[in-house]
Design a protein that fits this description.
By secondary structure, the chain is mostly helical. The chain has helices at residues 5-17, 25-35, 58-72, 76-85, 88-110, 115-130, 137-149, 152-170, 179-186, 197-208, 235-243; strands at 212-214, 231-233.
Length: 252
């Protein structure tokens, strides 16, 4: 499947030339629909965001679409395989789900100030829709929600935990690795065995989104001992990071 580079580049050029801070919302959104017959499965979805944007958030929507299309372009072979192996009904269902997810992504990008977070939303959307399995809309929406809340430092810590526990977790049928293994592996992280309130703050936040889980302290720990809480990686945490990986470089 070939991607229409000229149409996408035309959209990009329009945004570069247009004063997005004063452009009428309706005109701008209709401009997206007319200039951007998006790469499948988004080619029927552009008009879905019409009427849902604020003028001051148009730039974030542009960033979302651009990042999403840039990632989808890296998956031509996967998209072609989908067209070759899926029935017409399955493809239509995938397009419908993709349209709804694009609208949800646009809403989240609209209210997200950080460009990096908008980019992560785009990566989650792009990677979810090109996977061969049926799109899990609920999971994708949840992952986009998490992406709007986590900052760069949060993700740095999560990736570090994956680095030391990820290979073990992949071998488990359970949602996490055994408690003893997680306790021992913890000190292999960049944080070592030091006690640091920032570690608790970050991992407590990650735990609140179901990405990690706090380990119970050792049974022989004295009640008055100052102890750094330790955490175990959950499969949702691995899944989140897999969805925000770019195809070139990070993606396995």
């Amino acid at each position: 499947m070939r991607i229409d580079e000229l149409e996408f580049d035309a959209l990009k050029k329009r945004f570069e030339l247009e004063d997005v801070s004063v452009s009428p919302v309706t005109k701008a959104v209709l401009g997206i629909a007319s200039l951007m017959p998006l790469t499948w499965p988004f080619d029927k979805a552009a008009k879905a965001i019409s009427g849902h944007l604020a003028a001051d958030s148009l730039e974030r929507i542009r960033l979302l679409l651009e990042a999403c299309m840039n990632e989808v372009r890296k998956h031509d072979s996967e998209i072609q395989q989908l067209h070759d192996t899926k029935s017409a009904a399955e493809m239509e269902t995938r397009e419908d789900v993709s349209r709804e997810l694009l609208l949800e992504a646009a809403r989240r990008a609209e209210s997200t100030r950080s460009k990096e977070r908008v980019k992560r939303i785009a990566l989650i959307l792009a990677n979810a829709v090109v996977e061969p399995k049926a799109i899990d809309a609920d999971e994708t929406e949840e992952m986009m929600r998490v992406a709007t809340e986590l900052n760069d430092r949060d993700i740095e810590f999560l990736r570090e935990l994956i680095k030391i526990e990820g290979s073990l977790l992949q071998l488990q049928s359970a949602n996490h690795i055994p408690r003893y293994d997680a306790h021992i592996k913890w000190e292999q992280g960049s944080w070592g065995a030091r006690i640091d309130p920032e570690i608790d703050s970050v991992f407590s936040k990650l735990e609140s989104y179901g990405l990690v889980s706090r380990l119970a302290p050792p049974n022989n720990l004295n009640a008055i001992t100052d102890f750094q809480n330790r955490y175990v990686l959950l499969k949702k945490g691995m899944r989140f990071v897999s969805l925000i990986r770019e195809a070139t470089g990070e993606r396995k």
